[in-house]
From TrEMBL:
UniProt-listed InterPro entries: Lycopene_cyclase_dom
Key word NAD present: no
Organism: Daejeonella lutea
Protein name: Lycopene cyclase domain-containing protein
Any GO CC annotation of this UniProt entry: membrane
Every Lycopene cyclase domain range: 3-95, 128-218
Domain of life of the organism encoding this protein: Bacteria
Cellular localisation: Membrane
Length: 226
């Protein structure tokens, strides 16, 4: 089915777009803060994605993409960096609206410290695996920046990330089980959760973290300018 990956993108963003006009959350009013971050983050991750494709870290099954490529990347993969972060920021904003209490406030710093230590440990142990090296190297920098420099509300962020793992397992499970995206295990830990490479969890974490940091930055900048 040539349109499989395109359909996954469409379904990923469909309900967040439709529900953006809910009278309570009114997520559509925040769209203007999302798109600058999507562009910046998408550019970073697309360069990363392109290099991974060139160096055979992963590849795309031609049976499930439409055949339209830009810089060796199927158009569906490029759309992925729009649809998935958009849906995750929607989750983040809905949780902020409906759950007033910062449930993970006291755990945010310990979670960050554990993740930072884990990143350093994986970087030392798997320095020769490209996907592992880049994933945990980037996440380490992003976490240090978020925790000690920009200082976003990481309790709110982690809650959104944990909730986003449910659609993550559905979408990535489909992509990796068919498979639509094929991984070269010589460039990762060769450990999978079901069919999903372990690194994908942290790839998603870093992509969402960068998008949320930029989303909050543009929102605060706009508020301060008024």
């Amino acid at each position: 089915m040539k349109s499989a990956y395109l359909l996954i993108n469409f379904l990923t963003i469909l309900f967040p777009v439709l529900l953006s006009f809910d009278k309570r959350v009114q997520f559509f009013k925040s769209w203007r803060y999302i798109f600058p971050g999507l562009f910046i983050t998408g550019l970073v991750f697309l360069v990363w994605d392109y290099l991974f494709t060139v160096f055979d870290v992963w590849s795309f099954n031609p049976d499930y993409v439409t055949g339209l490529y830009i810089l060796d990347l199927p158009i569906e993969e490029i759309l992925f960096f729009i649809t998935v972060p958009f849906a995750c920021i929607f989750i983040y904003e809905c949780l902020n609206y409906y759950i007033k209490k910062d449930l993970l406030h006291d755990l945010a710093r310990p979670i960050s410290i554990v993740l930072i230590i884990a990143c350093m440990a994986f970087l030392v142990q798997f320095y020769d695996r490209v996907y592992t090296l880049i994933t945990f190297g980037f996440l380490l920098v992003a976490l240090v920046y978020a925790e000690f420099i920009q200082q976003i509300n990481l309790g709110r962020f982690y809650l959104a990330y944990f909730v986003s793992l449910l659609p993550f397992y559905i979408v990535n499970g489909i992509l990796t089980s068919i498979p639509i995206v094929m991984y070269n295990d010589a460039e990762n830990m060769a450990f999978r959760v079901g069919t999903i490479p372990f690194e994908d969890h942290f790839y998603s974490l870093s992509m969402l973290l960068m998008n949320i940091m930029l989303f909050e930055y543009f929102k605060k900048r706009d508020t301060a300018a008024r």
